[in-house]
Here is the input.
Amino acid sequence: MRILFTGGAGKAGRHVVPYLLAQGHQILNVDLEPLDHEGVDNRIADLTDAGQVFDVMQNYANLSELEPGGGTPAFDAVVHFAAIPRILIRPDNETFRNNTLSTYNVIDAAVRNRIPKIIFASSETTYGICFADGGRTPEYLPVDEEHPTVPEDSYAMSKVCCEAMARSFQARSGANIYGLRINNVIEPHEYETLFPGFIANPEQRERNLFAYIDARDLGRMVECCLRTDGLGYEVFNVANAEHSVDLPTQELISRFYADVPIRRDMGREETFYSIEKAREMVGFEPAYRWRDLVDLSAV
Here is the structure.
């Protein structure tokens, strides 16, 4: 596929884009800074400016595309990851403005250009737990896509609004638009630097529902969505299959979720951030396990 990818220089994007390249896709990365990776075309653009977004969406990805003489090729898909990635980086109103306006512009341009597949990054924070003021537990476990999304913070609010926009664009256009509620992204080098602390102090992971997603497995999820047509509008939780701490499910429930309803039996290491919908609808299956990448004997 010829794919327009936004935010490829970010923490997630710099791993997802190489994964997609390895699957044979052509990638144009649109960001405020380039991704220095062989085979990636880059375009510097402000996604909050609709004119810039439309220009990039209707333009050549590189000079070699001039050679056939048939005009500008069409994109087969758009993957929109660009965003201010959390609260407390920019002022709250700017975080909300940037994330909602950029998403509006990207999806609007994509559907007006009849691009049939749009995948956008939503967030675990939509469930209102990650950036809550004080502790907040989920309404039930495991948390699936039907769980209420009532956050308190500007970042998560922006993501809830982006989901609503995407649903509305899909209703009018008929495009396939899939939102990914991405859990805490872990890069390969972070297993060694972060996970010993998670093991020693599991309460560090409570705001993330003790879950995580390997950045390379996030690329796998995007590829699954690119290959799956005909779903209309859907949102998917995206996480790895097990907890990010060295405690069994039942002990975590006893220590942190004693009063939370448990809707079904859960495996000994099964994530509280359910990925069953992604497994069933797009065939997602994570490949990386922190237990295979962290030397427990050295912790």
User: Anything to note?
Assistant: The CA atoms of residues 99 and 232 lie 23 Å apart. The chain has nine helices and nine strands. The longest helix spans residues 92-112.
